[in-house]
Each structure stands twice: as structure tokens, then as C-alpha cells.
């Protein structure tokens, strides 16, 4: 099974690491046996780093059926539980204007067609140029793989998380960005530019 890895040691110790409470924070061994449990890190977390584990079981907010935590307590940044890819996987919803958000989906899905049903790419029987018929094509084109080489540790749970994130993609006030959407590389501005005006600029 493929395993997603990340090296958080490249960030300075002043950077707080925020993970879901079920995240395995131990590092990968040099040689990874097939029986090795999923781990999210390639290096040990350096001493002195603050690690915040979010316990979604105690969350009192729900967004699109997902348990959520208001991280700063002011509605500007919500962490949402999206397990399945790995235990403890989480996503975020960042408010960029009073009425618009950017959803950071992380590894909730790995191909845009797992959430998109755009007529630009996928046609249904009653669609025409510029007019997409949702009734004849209401499901995502792809689903999370449940084969042995799936990107998901728990494909069933991952599919549920994907379907919840997909509701954000259908909302005109939410722009969804995920880790492996290569189409974003040629369409969004890079740091230090901002995406706050994504809706006004027609980016979605």
C-alpha cells in the first residue's frame, strides 16, 4: 500500500504542528515493512516543537457533516475531521472575506474528477456546450480506490470524507484546494500574493 509521508523537520521549531488526535507522530524506520502501521512523518519531531492534537470527538461544531473546531475562536479558521487517507487526517476552512472561504482539503482526494463533475471534462447524456445537466450526471466521475495500492488507509471512510468535501466544491462561496491538484499550479497566484479575491476574480 502506498504511504503518504511528510518531513515536518524542515519547519523551524517556532512553527506549531497541528494534527488530528489519531495521527501517528512516530517517524518511519529506514526500512518500512509491509506490516508497518501508517505514519505521517519521515523524521522524529524535533524536541521543543509544539504539537497540538485536535480531538474532534469533543468538537461542538459541524460543517457539511464533518466535526469541526474553530481554531482561533473567531470563525476565521476551522479545522475539520476528514479521516480515511490516514488516521487523524484533517482539512481546514479559511475565511478570506466575510462571506467566502478557501477549503484546504489536503489529501482528502488525489484526482480532481473524484469531486468534480465539470462539463468541460465529463459529459452526461443531456448536457450541451455550456449547459451541464446535473440530473443525468450527479455523481463524481471517480471514487476512492479500495484496491491494495489505494492512497487511502481506510477507503470506505475516505470516500465519506470526500463526499463531504465535494459539497464545498458545489458551493459558490467556497474554493476547494487539495494537495495533488496539479491544475492549480497554472491558475492560482503564488505566495506572497493572496487568494482573498478568488471569487471576485472568477478563479473558481
TrEMBL record:
Q: Which Gene3D superfamilies match?
A: Ribonuclease Z/Hydroxyacylglutathione hydrolase-like
What InterPro entries does the annotation carry? MBL_superfamily_lactonases (IPR051013), RibonucZ/Hydroxyglut_hydro (IPR036866)
| GO MF annotation terms | hydrolase activity; metal ion binding
- Please verify whether the record's keywords include Zinc: yes
Metal-binding: present as a keyword of the record?
A: yes
Keywords on this record?
A: Hydrolase, Metal-binding, Zinc
On the tree of life, the source organism's domain of life is Eukaryota
Give the UniProt family note.
Belongs to the metallo-beta-lactamase superfamily.
Name the chain's protein: Metallo-beta-lactamase superfamily protein
* Species whose genome carries this gene: Mycena sanguinolenta
